[in-house]
């Protein structure tokens, strides 16, 4: 078990850290991907994927933060998740949001001395950046966004519904939930792995 004390003695990421980060980074991606598949069946629920996926995803995030409480861990994990997303066909703005979120998360955790509150806040920011990254393509692509959705194998009606959702008040609800979901997930993860955080605090 990696503790804050040992992390201070070996602040740099080591080989075993990269392996652990890669494994749990992939696990975090799988969690979000699974919810994207389920909620993506309906265009009206797709934009809630990040908020809902962040609840179980928070368990993974908090465990990773407990096991590798070292500078750069969140950034490395984010790059891994972003690359996997790109390889699986995710539009580039989503992975870009993930990387930006990783950088901001690292800043927040460092400023907060990797306390439980800082780690949870970092995950909330990371999730929100991921969500903003994906939805930003709607604005960047403009009228061609629906064509991009059709090219990916979905119907034109599906693409138009995605765009329509972005222009409705529900998008504000989805954005707020992108902060609430990670907080719930972080608190859940903290409770499940309470012993790990107790050791870090010691």
Describe the structure.
The chain has helices spanning 4-9, 15-39, 43-46, 49-67, 73-87, 93-111, 116-141, 145-151, 156-166, 170-192, 194-201. With 202 residues, the protein is mainly α. The protein has a single domain (14-201), classed as Arp2/3 complex 21 kDa subunit ARPC3 (Orthogonal Bundle), CATH 1.10.1760. The longest helix has 26 residues, at 116-141. The two termini are 13 Å apart. 43% of the residues are buried.
Helicity, as a percent range = over 70%
Q: Report the top-level CATH class.
A: Mainly Alpha
How many E strands?
0
CATH topology: Arp2/3 complex 21 kDa subunit ARPC3
State the major sheet: none
Strand-residue proportion = under 5%
**pLDDT < 50 stretches:** 1-9
How large, in whole angstroms, is the Cα Rg? 17 Å
What order do the helices and strands follow? HHHHHHHHHHH
Give the topology:
Elements: H1 4-9, H2 15-39, H3 43-46, H4 49-67, H5 73-87, H6 93-111, H7 116-141, H8 145-151, H9 156-166, H10 170-192, H11 194-201
Helix pairs in contact: 2-4, 2-5, 4-7, 4-10, 5-6, 6-7, 7-10, 8-9
Descriptive tags:
single chain, mainly alpha, disordered N terminus
Brief description of this entry?
With 202 residues, the chain is an all-alpha fold. It has 11 helices and no strands.
